[in-house]
Predict the structure.
Amino acid sequence: MRVMTIRSAVYMAEQECPYDEEFDGNDFSATHLIGYVGNEPAACLRIRYFADFVKMERLAVRREFRKTRLAFKVVRAGIELCRAKGYRKIYGHSQKRLLNFWSRFGFRPFEGSREFVFSDFDYVEVSLDMTPHPEAISIGVDPYIMIRPEGRWHVPGILERSAIRPVTRPSVARAHA
């Protein structure tokens, strides 16, 4: 609800984006980062995962918090999350007027990128090549790390605590006498 509220304030109220164009059905298959100022949800970013790249999109910062550095913190956190997952490329769409902002992180229009329009704004395709985190999550990592909540792989999870209980429902069928 916090993400929806922030995006509604920025995209629908300020930029007059129609509801169906802002809430496109991809929110349920994405990771959402939320940035706070104190206890107030002030910014958000959506990340969707594809086979060999991620798409970073829908960065929104409420008007009253735009003079903070929160947008920079949220984007950096998004990049670090993607690195922790082992990705090497982030793809995105930048409003042309915001290319300078995205270039601060290393995003650049790439060869063959297209300019296009949606929701009444002009955009360009951009990408960022990066090195995965040296301890990126991958097959072969401790299985308990793999089942920890998204982005909190460094914090032991609830299922690790359940592992101290004895097995009461073994998966091996007992032999009949």
User: Anything to note?
Assistant: The two ends are 57 Å apart (CA to CA). The chain has a mean pLDDT of 93.
